[in-house]
Amino acid sequence: MTDYRDVNRANWDERVPAHVASPSYHVEQFLADPSYLSEVVRFDLPRLGEVSGLRGVHLQCHIGTDTVSLARLGARMSALDFSAPAVEQARSLAERLGLAVDFHVADVYDAVEVLGAASYDFVYTGIGALCWLPDIERWASVVAGLLRPGGRLFVREGHPMLWTLEAGTAYAEVRYPYFETAEPIVFDEGGTYVETDAEFTTTVTHEWNHGLGETITAVQKAGLVFDSLTEHDSAPWNGLPGLMTEDADGEWRLTDDPRRLAATYTLRAHKPGQ
Question: Can you give the residue ranges of the Methyltransferase domain (predicted)?
């Protein structure tokens, strides 16, 4: 039986050069402007809270643009991703920016063993991470294991409502499961979520959706205290091509009445203790 991690890792590994070169990741702006932050981190600054001086870990960091943004806000960052080429690029970016970030190549479910238990003041997870994991309860247990007493979890993720949809020419169809399933949703698509002329040979991915109730319950079951959930009508990528319009901040909303769709959410929780 093919391991979903092998399938997905091959897909991500091949797309790293295209993502680094894409204007969507703004690598050149990071290098040119010492104050530049990723659009994802900038969007959630009102909810993120103070991170300066705190020890943080970014799970599933990809090429590290959100990681270095948190470091620029003063956090002492570690980061982890299962793609070696992605971590290589993330490490290179941090070094070029003069930031000391501790990067690791590892599966997210192994994060406690790799990074150390109860070692972090906050765990950060960004857009498009949880859909690659088959078990949201196991993920929440990892987060709880990484946090010190009093430490907090911060997630911004694609809304499970959006993940159920497939764009048509003039409308979106509800096609995929809202709730976590035992078997993956298998996609075979040749492109990626950034504009590129690159042609890819690894096109299959295995993904899972996780309902909001499942995610919040998993966080609570892991011993964390749920603090807040904010739903947004926008996403930092074109989740429904042909049906969404980009604003000046790089966020995409339904062109026709965006109030109809929750596109992303921000979730916050903390581990009890001092």
Answer: 60-151
Q: What percent of the chain has pLDDT over 90?
A: 88
Query: Which residues, at least 6 apart from 71, have a Cβ–Cβ distance to it below 8 Å?
Result: 77, 94, 99, 100, 101
Which domains are assigned to the chain?
4-270 (3.40.50.150)
pLDDT at 21 over 90: no
The HSE-up count of residue 159 (CA atoms within 13 Å, CB side) is 21
Phi-psi domain of 110 (left: phi exceeds 0; alpha: psi -120 through 50; beta: other): alpha
Contact 263, 159 (CB under 8 A): yes
> In the block, which residue shows the tokens 């409308």?
171
**Interval 122-132: pLDDT, tens:** 999 999 999 99
Among residues 180, 225, 229, the alpha carbon closest in space to that of 207 is found at 180
DSSP letters, 130-174, are: GGG-S-HHHHHHHHHHHEEEEEEEEEEEE-HHHHTEEE-SSSEEE
Cβ count within 10 A of residue 57: 29
The rounded distance, in Å, linking the Cα atoms of 261 and 254 is 7
The dihedral formed by the CA atoms of 198, 89, 159 and 256, expressed in degrees to the nearest 10:
-50
